[in-house]
Design a protein that fits this description.
single chain, 205 residues, six-stranded antiparallel beta sheet, 14 strands, 34% strand, globular, binds zinc ion
């Protein structure tokens, strides 16, 4: 499990790996940095209808922003609010980029068989028999991209530090999967993927 600083009430997602959860409406999901500088890709599906998914593109359109702020809702592909961002100690995220996948490493970096978020989601969701084409685009929590005026993107190290976190309120029952992004070919994770920790607060607590 690596170098986790998580407490026993937390679920540690080891560096470069994924985890899936089913969460009831009203629950809070806190995603905490154990060492900092770690991007966490997050996807979500309505628990009762896996064809309705968290949609970064719909969310950006309705927010009129490239990433959410505290108080904003994250929407589905049918514009249903699925999650509300209720705490955020970092304030930088990305809704524009695809999850890393085997082809990202092969075509862009010349590396085969590299761990990747897409495979992590498939592994975490294996009991649901989801295929790669069933995976929606992710919300890239803690990812710091600089979007230049001429359209170029700078991939910057995540500004998240150890102990930083986001908390999301679950608005409808959800199947959620997260991946502690294994990217080590550009600087988004500070050059070395790290663990993150999850805490679930049940409804009403
Ligand atoms: Zn990734």
């Amino acid at each position: 499990m690596g170098e986790s600083l998580a407490d026993p009430a937390e679920i540690v997602v080891p560096a470069g790996h994924g985890h899936a959860l089913t969460l009831p409406a009203g629950a809070l999901l806190t995603i905490r940095q154990t060492r900092g500088r770690q991007v966490v890709d997050l996807i979500a599906f309505r628990a009762d209808d896996l064809t309705e998914r968290l949609s970064p593109a719909h969310t950006m359109a309705s927010l009129g922003r490239l990433w959410p702020r505290v108080g904003d809702s994250l929407l589905s592909n049918r514009r249903t609010p699925l999650l509300e961002l209720v705490e955020d100690t970092v304030g930088r995220h990305d809704l524009t980029l695809a999850a890393c996948d085997p082809w990202r490493y092969r075509y862009d970096y010349g590396v085969t068989e590299h761990p990747n978020c897409s495979d992590n989601f498939l592994a975490a969701l294996r009991p649901r028999a989801l295929q790669r084409h069933d995976l929606p685009p992710p919300v890239n929590l803690f990812q710091y991209l600089r979007y230049r005026a001429d359209g170029r993107i700078d991939f910057r190290p995540s500004p998240a530090r150890a102990g930083d976190h986001v908390t999301l309120r679950v608005l409808v029952p959800l199947l959620v999967a997260v991946s502690a992004c294994p990217m080590d070919r550009n600087p988004i994770n500070g050059g070395r993927p790290r663990d993150v920790a999850l805490r679930i607060t049940p409804p009403g607590d």
